Amino acid sequence: MTVIDPDTQATNWVAEDEDDDAEEMPLSLRLSIADTLTLGNATCGFMAVYFTTTGILIPHLTGDESGMARNSAATAVILMLCAAVFDLFDGLVARKLRSSPMGAELDNLSDLISFGLAPAYFVLVYGMVATDAHERVAAVGAIVVLLAVVLRLARFSCVTVKDGTFQGMPSPFGALTIISIVLLELPFEATLLAIVGTAWLMVSRVEYPKPRGVLAVAMLGWIVAAMGMLAAWAFAAPGGEVMLQMGCALQIVMAATIPLFATARRVNTFRGNRRESREARAEGIP
Fold first, then answer.
1. How many other C-beta atoms lie within 10 A of the C-beta of residue 50?
2. Which of 226, 171, 158 is nearest to 198 (CA)?
3. How buried is residue 38: exposed, middle or buried, by Cβ count under 10 Å (0-12/13-18/19+)?
4. pLDDT in tens, 159-193
5. What is the crossing angle of helices 118-129 and 68-96, to 10°?
6. What values do phi and psi take at 253, rounded to 5?
7. Residues 90, 96, 98, 102: is their CA dihedral positive or negative?
8. What is the distance between the alpha carbons of residues 27 and 50, in angstroms, rounded to a whole number?
9. Mean pLDDT of the chain
10. How many CA atoms lie within 13 A of 49 on its CB side?
11. For residue 205, what are the contacts with CB-CB under 8 A and spacing of at least 6?
12. Are 225 and 139 in contact (CB under 8 A)?
């Protein structure tokens, strides 16, 4: 007769269960290099909110005039630019190497933090600290920005567009445009209208090219240049104020002209198709 020790049998069962769990660990729980870059994107977005709160909002509420606002605003925007760099490279790395099954979900959630919550919160704080702003109206503008990014990211997950293009302004480009509008220090009404217009472009059907190849290099160069202009502005370097205003104006001009080029291209394509159709019908007439 064989005697089985209950304690030993229970230990064996536990060990077998642990081995089975280890063998059955889904691949979706393993982070790839691209996923790590995506998490860096989310971290930068969260820290942008932190610096906006501690360096701009709290000093304003407490009456501290220590000069932290300019440095903290520049730091918050630089962190959003860093998030855009992470977002640019995680896509490139995912195409070259691999991405985990949850890569797309991680990317959307990180973009929501860095290019939805962070710029919307920046607009909200702007409405609280600017002398000519209206806090409640600015809060509505911030909600519009946040909802536009939420709708854009949700649509991006559901709608298939032709390769090489985005439908609507990409959320990183939209976030940087909104921040540029705020930093340009236009009158409050003009600032709010420009912010709402940018939010509309993000949920529109206007086609934007994906940053690949030469365009990706140009975008990276522009981000680095913007970081330099922000640093010069933060440390009150000679000409820093002018460089920042020129950079913000250029960002807004690009945001306004790209849809015009896309619309013109679509109109030319439509006219070309109609011309070809008329010529085909004319050739078919005896």
1. 15
2. 171
3. buried
4. 766 666 788 889 999 999 999 999 998 999 999 99
5. 170
6. -60, -45
7. positive
8. 33
9. 82
10. 15
11. 167, 168
12. no
Q: How many residues does the chain have?
A: 286
Q: Pick from 170, 86, 73, 65: which is nearest to 118 by CA? A: 73
Q: Distance between CA 10 and CA 159 in Å, rounded?
A: 51
Residue with tokens 């912010």: 195
12: DSSP letter:
H
> What angle, rounded to 10 degrees, do the helices at 33-52 and 118-129 form?
10
- For residue 67, the 8-state DSSP code is S
Q: Are 165 and 206 in contact (CB under 8 A)?
A: no
Q: Which residue has the tokens 């290019």?
A: 115
Using DSSP, state whether 170 is helix, strand or coil: coil
Structure tokens at 95: 């195409």
One-letter amino acid for residue 280 of the chain: A
Q: Which of 62-76, 102-116, 141-155, 194-208 shows the lowest mean pLDDT across its residues?
A: 62-76
Place of tokens 């820290």: 47
Vertex 183 angle, CA 182 and 184, to 5°:
90
**Tokens at 178, concatenated:** 């909104």
- For residue 46, is pLDDT > 90? yes
DSSP string, 78-122: HHHHHHHHHHHHHHHHHHHS---TTHHHHHHHHHHIIIIIHHHHH
Residues paired with 165 in a beta bridge: 209
d(CA 84, CA 88): 6
pLDDT tens-place string over residues 59-88? 888 877 555 678 888 999 999 999 999 998
Residue 112 near residue 147, CB atoms below 8 Å: no
Cα separation, 140 vs 206, in Å, equals 24
Measure the CA angle with vertex 281, ends 280 and 285; round to 5°: 120
